[in-house]
Amino acid sequence: MRGSRNEGEENLLRRIRAALGRRSSPNLRERPASTFLTSGMGDDAALARPTSGNELILTCDWFLEGTHFLREKHPADSIGWKCLARAVSDVAAMGGVPRCFLLSLALPRELTGPWMNKFLGGLRRAARAFRCELAGGDTTKRREILINVTVVGEIAEGKAVLRSGARPGDIVYVSGRLGEAEFGLQQLRTNKELTGKRGAILKKHLYPQPRLALGQWLAEKRLATAMMDLSDGLSSDLRRLCHASNVGGSVKADCLPMLRHLAGSGLNSNHGLQLALHGGDDYELLFTVKKKDRARIPRAYKGVPLTAIGEITKGKGLLLTLRDGRSSPLKPGGWDPFTN
Amino acid sequence: MRGSRNEGEENLLRRIRAALGRRSSPNLRERPASTFLTSGMGDDAALARPTSGNELILTCDWFLEGTHFLREKHPADSIGWKCLARAVSDVAAMGGVPRCFLLSLALPRELTGPWMNKFLGGLRRAARAFRCELAGGDTTKRREILINVTVVGEIAEGKAVLRSGARPGDIVYVSGRLGEAEFGLQQLRTNKELTGKRGAILKKHLYPQPRLALGQWLAEKRLATAMMDLSDGLSSDLRRLCHASNVGGSVKADCLPMLRHLAGSGLNSNHGLQLALHGGDDYELLFTVKKKDRARIPRAYKGVPLTAIGEITKGKGLLLTLRDGRSSPLKPGGWDPFTN
Question: Average per-residue pLDDT in chain A?
């Protein structure tokens, strides 16, 4: 476990810093332009100065080879993007603004060359897109690629939207289209070459877009009574929101924004429904709105469709209503690592 | 990778919360006694309210089976304690106060019973000892035990001690005794039953004590010009401190607080010196003090010995001076995962 004579880890940290960090001046206490981080990588810990009157948002996420991605299927660039996007999505789900992140990376020595450069490229693009700066991290050698990302965000005090605020009668909304990411994964696993629309569908799986602007708008305007991001699938995640709010919910299958047909993909409408109900990794927002505020929710916010899919109820269970009017309990069918 | 029908992960999270978290009231916005966390586990992210006038300290650490500990050698209780102690030690090294932590845990299903209870027991003891509250985390199933801990701490603005402030002429100090943790690991690996003093020596390896009070005192009194914790071994870590400060350093072998003799252990003085120079995992503090402040550094602070071991120099290299007066370059010989 111990006893080496060299500085391999420091070289790696230098490269990560060069790709993502700000330029550091080792002899001076750094006071860079960004107002959040006051001292970045290269010390025992990072220092940051929170904005007065804000609360901090703290979240972390695993992203593990074999569990969350496959080395031979997922481009390194996508792994870099997605490891940050997933954690940033939790900040979006509170209505917050991401500020900085910590990257814990373990990987085999043979991936420290081109693979890591592409990984850092995707991560850099994500960090810029989400305005989330690298604050520090930890690296080590490992047979498999292990990633853990912690994101620190901020939000005005008292404005964060929790999962627990949904009340009977509230309308249930989702952003975007559900099941696309899961379908993208299924396509990725077929080993077929994917072109045109079938190639485009991969984008949602490989490069998810956390709904930051939408989340911030809903929180700022106090439109969402409860909110979370859809990471494990609607059936599992809506259940969590209802459980936290001590309510039930009903979903209309016909209202779900889903994939309906894709030439040559073998997709049929039942498949589309199953993907929308149980598919993971969409990183769309699931939120509830008081009935009286319904008119204030547009059909799309900054190009992202917003769809009313059901209602919060008094009972504790979840119901799914089909087109023919029949209802049946909606069981959690999303992803759970411990029963997989 | 996906497609289960059950709530295994939530049960696990519930148990972690029960063992470590505050009681949650799912229907109310939590405003508990602790002034830092304002909403803990059970949402997309945790919310915290930083203390006005403070800077945040952010750090994360891997703790991985096979890399940092061995499942069959290290008690689960020690793994729980140590995963938090290591990350808290980075906060101590800045002079800060730990506030809360995020726990990312991946483990095999068969360890979710008694093993995990013991793990959580050690973690709870550490969380209480360091006054560092669980804020949230992520769990998943994995063949091997993977742990990542992020700690958030605080310190009065401008008081954090960086690695970069050492100047030629400053005295180099260490806390505690060096090499004990590495020796403990060597003993643990012998498979012999360890009793008496040889058993006691394991404690430093299994249950390290981050030097929080010492770090806070040095920062508060502005006594340390530079500081870091000793995690990879003095020869590697002093090199990092000197590099960040753009200086060199010389260490007197004779001054090093080290293990000298331990009946029946086969330990001799050269072995003790090698352990003190290159042994990892001590989590003692390495710090530098202006010559004029030397008299203000006691021989021990709250029971922890403080020892002057050398001096900061103008040149860039590290020198080791032996008892006979001969000096030789001190090469980094501490732990580095990428050359191991």
Answer: 90
